Amino acid sequence: MLKTLDQSGAHAGTHTETGARVPSRAAQVFDQLRLARVLMMVVVSGTTAFGFGTSTARIALAAGAAGLLSMGCFLLDHLFDLGKDGAGGRSSNPFSAGTLAPLTGRILIALLLAGAGVLALLLGWPALASAAGIVLVVAGLGFGILDGPIPRAVSLGALQGLYALLGGLAAGPPSVGLGLTALFLLLAMTGGRVLGDVRDIEDDARAETRTIPLRFGIRASIAFLFTFETLAYLAGAAMYWFGGLGPGWLGCLASIAAAGTAINVTFALRPTPRAADVANRLSLGLLGGLYSLGMVLARFL
Questions:
Q1: What is the pTM of this model?
Q2: Are 261 and 230 in contact, with CB atoms under 8 Å apart?
Q3: Are 162 and 134 in contact (CB under 8 A)?
């Protein structure tokens, strides 16, 4: 959804006789298990819980639930994609690559999701409902219910928004501020889906995956990206004006808007898979970090 790590870590690798760089086993496993994205979900849920003013114990519960849930759901997504990823020769799927046996994966998925459910239930029924919503979205994708280009993009945004809800609900009942926070992430990640789709356009074409770039073209994809990112910034401003988040959040939002626009414009000027990969990494790292910083500062400023 092993061999031991070599001394140079996840960036190490070997070279073929032609000089091409082959990722190390550690780097392949890191990519297959989507550990960077698991960490992102943990941070988003944990910092959202912190920003909305809950205790350290409940922050830990929210972050732990997000970690188990995201790992289980990523593996579930890989299991759903086993057939087409195997046919397309994708090495990023641990099942098609032989890193995990399907039976082992099913057991691991069940344990991870059960553990996440227990932690979420300790936060209350609304938090458990958010966790269940995440599993339902992943299942909807896996069974093809959300397999169209637009539903696929919106599903990514919905997942991010639900992880924020999981964290925010650790602090108390639903509120306008929490709803706007989830909306901000939903819109931002829906637009950002285009970057990942352009990055993976060749693999997606071979696997016959229905994405926005393949269905509507690059120009329409860029318009989609800028439209949803603009809507996200407006939702972020509403978090300050109507949601009760303080100036600490507003300052980080301004930084997110400035950096995000610069990243997107740079990509739009040269919309290649490589440029999309760079933009996607910057968006997840830099903008995700600014969101988390904004949640932390919202509690103090």
A1: 0.87
A2: no
A3: yes
Cross-strand bridge partners of residue 23: 13
Residue at 240: amino acid letter: Y
From residue 44, give the alpha-carbon distance in Å to each of 59, 67, 103, 189, 204: 11, 10, 31, 13, 28
Domain residue extents for the chain: 175-301
Instruction: Report how far residue 248's alpha carbon sits from residue 215's, in angstroms, rounded to the nearest whole number.
Output: 40
Tokens of 54: 């809950």
Q: How far apart are CA 127 and CA 3, in angstroms?
A: 37
In a 13 Å sphere around the CA of 59, the CA atoms on its Cβ side amount to: 15
What is the percentage of the chain residues whose pLDDT exceeds 90? 73
pLDDT at res. 27:
65
pLDDT digit string (tens) for 141-160? Answer: 999 899 899 999 999 999 99
Can you give the three-state secondary structure of 121-166, one letter per residue? HHHCHHHHHHHHHHHHHHHHHHCCCCCCHHHHHHHHHHHHHHHHHH
Pick the closest to residue 195 from 297, 130, 101, 287 (CA basis).
287
